[in-house]
Amino acid sequence: MKRGRREQPGFRVLARGAARGAGLVCRAAPAHVAAYVAVTLVGAVTPVALAWLTKDVLDGIAHGSAAGLPGLAAAIAVVTTLAAAATHAAEYLRGEVDRRVSLRAKDELFTAVCGFTGLARFESPAFLDRLRMAQQSASNPGRLIDTAMSAARSLITVAGFVGSLLLISPVFTALLLLSAIPALLIELRLSRQRVDMMWRIGPVERKEMFYARLMSTTDAAKEIRLFDLGAFLRVRMLAEVRAAYAARRGMDRRESAVQAGLAGAAAIVAGIGLVWAILAAAQGRLSVGDVSMFVAAIAGVQAALSTMVSAGAMAHEQLLIFQHHVTIIGSGPGLPVPADPVALPALRRGIELRDVWFRYSDEHPWVLRGVDLFIPYGRTVALVGRNGAGKSTLIKLLCRFYDPTRGAILWDGVDIRDVPPEALRARIGAVFQDFVSYELTARDNIAVGDLTAAEDQERLRLAAEEAGVHEALAALPYGYETLLSRDFAPEQDEEADGVLLSGGQWQRLALARAFLRRENDLMILDEPSAGLDAEAEYEVHNRLTRLRAGRTSVVISHRLGATRDADTIVVLSGGAVTEQGTHAELRALDGTYAALFARQASGYVDDLAARR
Ligand SMILES: Nc1ncnc2c1ncn2[C@@H]1O[C@H](COP(=O)(O)OP(=O)(O)OP(=O)(O)O)[C@@H](O)[C@H]1O
After folding, report:
1. In this predicted structure, what is the pLDDT of residue 471?
2. Together in a domain, 289 and 413
3. Dist. CA 498 → ligand 1 center (Å)
């Protein structure tokens, strides 16, 4: 495990986090929190009340005055019942506060995550570790209130017993209280170390989850079986598990040793008190009731102090983890927000990339090196080039998933960094190379292209027809309502198997999403015909050509037959535009495009020749 220590937030930051946490808890479950506080108070005062009542009973018996005993016995019964009821009520309320706060915290967290406008954060391991810890914190944020309540309850118990102890021995009371200070400092240090350890093993646990997911879902099931990767992946996963457990074990050992030391010290202090009380009783300075009270008070104060110290340490740990939640919530949208946002006009002239340089981070190599390109309104520009040339990167910049490292992208002269990203994206339709196959119904899988169409069956059907997938969807067991997943059972019949589409059918479904956004100003098609059979490719190609006619579009395809009729073909090589023109012009130029085209065409020509 290479990851080093992480700078942990200081007192002020934690105090602000605590205030935020308290605010979250109070907003999420105000009535339940109030009830929880009330039963906690009842739970806190009952041990003290019981100790006093027991003392009075014992003193009454010792002095032979039996008159008040029935009343005291009844009071003990009532207090005991109250204590039991408070314990159970607190347990329910604690769970309910936890659920309500968790719901709110998850809502806050995922609202923030979905509000991230760029992609860079999702590609940062440190961010993913932070997100995991934030999710952990959002799963049980009620623990914060739980530990706070536990500390408050113990404080009340301590205060109650301390009053009683002071009457018997002020010196011993001071000794008892002072002994809690080193314990608290040690526990706080341990909680920091624990959170630090959790941060260090974050990547290890994510890798473990990655291997576990690979082995337990369909994503990699074929390759794992064919390549016989089961043992390889399992061994790697177990190595990660062992590494994480080793770190946890080390921490647990350290904690156990420290806790044992603290418990030993507490036992010595209690022993001293007991010896003193017995000697004092023997000399007649304490009554039998006093000794009983003293013993109960020592046990009560020590237990409560220990709970307070643990609760303090636990709250500290929870706050350190909650800090990840606070950081994510407050981290803003990711890409710089325009101070004075400009309304994005409908495209009329075109989109210009002006000396665009881009790399994914300072540590990564340049992907685009000074790209100058104009995508005229109403025209189709095809991007071609070898694998890794930067074609997909360029369209990610057009959608503003990243900002150019240098240079600018202008939409009718407006820098796209000056408009809200959502306004820009509302004007774009796209089929990405790595489009998502959602485990949703066929209808939802198309509607994600434009959620305003979700209830418009006619629009969805039309888009599916245009993408050539309507018939396949209509023939599914529940038509468009069929769940396209084998991981979840269909709602209509929990015993039935789910349905999966073929690769080409999924591709058409992704195209249907794009057809829903046909009216948008810019259409981006990254390998739109990948996975389609020859006939489907031809058919889809014709449809897309019709769709693109008179519209602004950018098409990427390695099948040069699909891009040859584009208005402009742009060859990207080494991150720069090396050739640009129509198919005929580039063929005449006899450069990279002509060579690529000739190589592809020769495959088909040979086939034809062989068939003749
Ligand atoms: N998210 C990323 N983080 C870091 N590097 C990346 C990322 N995405 C792509 N790259 C790198 O950027 C370069 C260009 O990738 P890009 O996907 O733009 O190429 P492409 O021309 O679309 O390739 P292909 O034809 O194979 O789809 C590649 O070297 C790739 O490794």
Report:
1. 94
2. no
3. 34
Q: Tell me, what CATH number does 221's domain have?
A: 1.20.1560.10
Backbone angles phi, psi at 378, to 5 degrees: 80, 5
Neighbours of 157 (CB within 10 A): 25
Q: Are residues 412 and 302 in the same domain?
A: no
| Per-residue pLDDT at 284 | 85
What distance in Å separates the CA atoms of residue 535 and residue 291, rounded to the nearest whole number?
A: 96
| 133 alpha-carbon distance from chain centroid | 8
DSSP state of 338: P
Cα(327) to ligand 1 centroid in Å equals 30
**Pocket probe mutation, ligand 1, options 127, 358, 360, 578, max atoms within 8 Å of Cβ:** 360
Predicted ipTM of the assembly: 0.98
Q: How many CA atoms lie within 13 A of 115 on its CB side?
A: 14
First to last CA, the chain: 64
Q: How far is the CA of 392 from the centre of ligand 1 (A)?
A: 7
The verdict on 115 and 33 lying in the same domain is yes
494 in a structural domain:
no
Does residue 515 lie in a domain region? Answer: no
Ligand 1 site, residue 307, Cβ cutoff 6 A: no
Neighbours of 199 (CB within 10 A): 21
- Same domain for 579 and 604, yes or no, is yes
C-beta of 200 in contact with ligand 1 (< 6 A):
no
User: What's the chain's average pLDDT?
Assistant: 88
Considering the entire predicted model, what is its pTM?
Answer: 0.81
406 DSSP β-pair partners = 357
The closest of 574, 577, 569 to 553, measured between CA atoms, is 569
Within a domain: 529:
no
Q: How far apart are CA 370 and CA 356, in angstroms?
A: 5
Q: Range of 349's domain?
A: 345-427+554-612
pLDDT-above-70 percentage for the chain: 97
Query: Average pLDDT in the 393-412 region?
Result: 96
> Which residue among 393, 558, 577 has the greatest number of ligand 1 atoms within 8 angstroms of its CB, and so is best to mutate?
393
Domain count, the chain: 2
